[in-house]
Amino acid sequence: MIRATFKTRPPRILDLDIENRPASYRGDFPTADITAIACSFVGDKEIECWTLGPFKHVEMLEAFRERWDDADMVTGHNIRRHDLPILNGAFIEFGLEPLDAKRSEDTLRDLRRTSGLPRDQESLCEMLGVAASKYHMTQHRWRVANRLQRVDLTERRVKSDVDDHKRLREVLHRRGLLHPPRWWRP
C-alpha cells in the first residue's frame, strides 16, 4: 500500500503597523497621511520599513502590497479600525487597487473582554511581562518627524511597535487571551 503524504506550510502571518499624520481636516476630524509602514512575518527577525521622505507614497504602498499578497493572515494592534482602513484609503487615493479581503487578528479587538484594565499595546506588554522596546516620541519628536525632518524617528517608532507586538501576540496566544481571527473586508 502506498501512502501519500502531503506537507502543508504553516500560514504566513504578517505583523504590521503604520504611522500617520493629519493630512487635512473635515470639521474637527483629521484625515490621515501615512508616514511609515513597518511589517514582519511572524517567525522572522527582520522588520521591513518604508518611510515617507526616502520613499514616495506609491513606492511605500507597492512595497507593502508585495508583503500583503504573500501573507495568509495579518496581525497588529487595532489594525481593523485604524491601520487597514487608512492603508486601503491610501491605495485608493493614489490610484492603486484596494487591498483584498484577508484574515486578520487584531490584538485589541480580538482580546477577551475585560473591565478595568487598559487595553493599549504598551500597557498590555507591561502587565503581561513582555519586554517592550517601544520608542517613545515627545511632542517635539512627532513634530519634526511629521515634517519629514527626522524620518529616522518615525522608523524607530513604527519598527519598535511591530517588534513589541510580535512578542505580545505570542504571550496572548500562549495564555489563550485572543478570540479566533476574523476576516477583514474592505
Compact description:
The protein is an alpha/beta fold and 186 residues long.
Structure report:
The structure is a single chain. With 186 residues, the chain is an alpha/beta fold. The protein has one domain: Ribonuclease H-like superfamily/Ribonuclease H (Nucleotidyltransferase, domain 5, 2-Layer Sandwich). The protein has five helices and six strands; from the N terminus they run βββαβαβαααβ. The chain has a six-stranded mixed β-sheet, with helices on both faces. β2 (29-41) and β3 (48-51) form a beta hairpin. The longest helix is centred in the last third of the chain and has 24 residues, at 151-174. It is globular, with a radius of gyration of 18 Å.
Count helical runs: 5
Name the shape in a single word.
Answer: globular
Overall radius of gyration: 18 Å
Strand order of the largest sheet: 3-2-1-4-5-6
Q: Please identify, by name, the CATH architecture.
A: 2-Layer Sandwich
SS-based structural class?
alpha/beta
Any idea of the CATH topology?
Nucleotidyltransferase, domain 5
| Average pLDDT number | 94
User: What is the H-and-E element order?
Assistant: EEEHEHEHHHE
- Count of folded domains: 1
Defining traits:
single chain; globular; Nucleotidyltransferase, domain 5; alpha/beta; 6 strands; 6-stranded mixed beta sheet; 37% helix; 186 residues; 5 helices
